[in-house]
Amino acid sequence: MALLAAPLPLLAQPSGSSDALPLEEIQTFAEVFERIKRAYVEDVDDRTLLRNAMRGMLSELDPHSAYLDEEEYQSLRESTQGEFGGIGIEVGTENGQLMVITPIDDTPASRAGLLSRDVIVAIDGTPTDSMSLQEAVTLMRGEPNTELRISILRSGEDSPREFILTREVIRSESVKHELLEPGYGYLRVSQFQSRTPDQAREALERMAREQPLEGLILDLRNNPGGVLQAAVGIADLFLDEGLIVYTEGRLSDTEMSFSASPTTPAGDVPLVVLINGGSASAAEIVAGALQDQRRGVIMGTDSFGKGSVQQIMPLGNGEGLKLTTALYYTPNGRSIQAQGIEPDVEVVRGRLEVAESRREIREADLEGHLSAQQAPRDRQEMAERLLDDYQLSEALNLLKALNVVDRRRR
């Protein structure tokens, strides 16, 4: 998740401090630098060596910290604002492998069928085993209408698959909505950008104008995260009090807490939240807050488990750092890092199948029965969609059951 912030102040250390710079290691660094300059097979300028050293410092900290040159820095800022050129994929590293966290909705990556946890083994023929995360992102982004060839290894398969994708201008609208049935809304948040809370609020208001909502499904599946404040804004749409998330780090300005405001457009609507292994970072903040506050039922499979906060720090030369500065915690003090959110109701991905055997005779089987009017096309399409998406179908069924129980209690 990206949290835009000002540069941190330089911390001076007293000469006698245990945190003073180790002179022996600095001398070794200078020696290595000089030997590369003198003996490497090709001539390498000082600027390149120093940049590589800075990249190495950050990449060895964790998979999410990185040194950003001017182009990479601008690219990252664009992605948090919702527009960039590429194939629409969020990536990370695990055990030294470049891995798909999730494809973004309605992009070349999602249309081609890339899946969460696919391992990217090559980009345009270049192996990724020695490639930094930021280098991979830079290679995959580019001018629209240009081709990108990636090879992926999928779990359970012995040989890589190759995909040839055409880059597009990714203008990712992060929020979609619709009524699945009268009174039952569906709100899809595909990533967390600065505009996401406002878009979600408008979507809720539109659905409520059509018909008062009796239940809502918040779909955070394959949501890779995004801006911390956007996650807080989404959770606040459903909570009218209490803690949403807090962060802890080494410096005072990385320790923050966010609480819900009293006004909310959907504070009492029955809620089911869908998550899966592609739900990461900011998506886990929302799911964790709603779960701890007992505001909704979390359904699906375990989330990704990225519980760290990155600050994007501008440097004086127009470049920047993406640095992990804190861990975040749910209202009950749970850390999501490397653990993820465990759903209240586990529902694996699948498809509904209608059993043909042992079917009872019904009115429609009788000769000469009266025919019903054909359902409208949009109703047919929705029925087919629910057949294809077992998790969504089960979420809708659960919402209906919750309403039945609620009516009996009144």
Automatic annotation (TrEMBL):
Keyword Hydrolase in record: yes
SMART domains tied to this protein: PDZ, TSPc
Highest rank taxon of the organism: Bacteria
Matches recorded under Pfam families: CtpB_N-like, PDZ_6, Peptidase_S41
Family annotation (InterPro entries): ClpP/crotonase-like_dom_sf, CtpA/B_N, PDZ, PDZ_6, PDZ_sf, Peptidase_S41A, Tail-specific_protease
Residues in PDZ domain copies: 73-141
Keyword Hydrolase: yes
Keywords for this protein: Hydrolase, Protease, Serine protease
Family annotation (SUPFAM superfamilies): ClpP/crotonase, PDZ domain-like
Stored PANTHER family: CARBOXY-TERMINAL PROCESSING PROTEASE CTPA (PTHR32060:SF30), TAIL-SPECIFIC PROTEASE (PTHR32060)
Family (UniProt): Belongs to the peptidase S41A family.
Protein name per its UniProtKB record: S41 family peptidase
Organism: Vreelandella neptunia
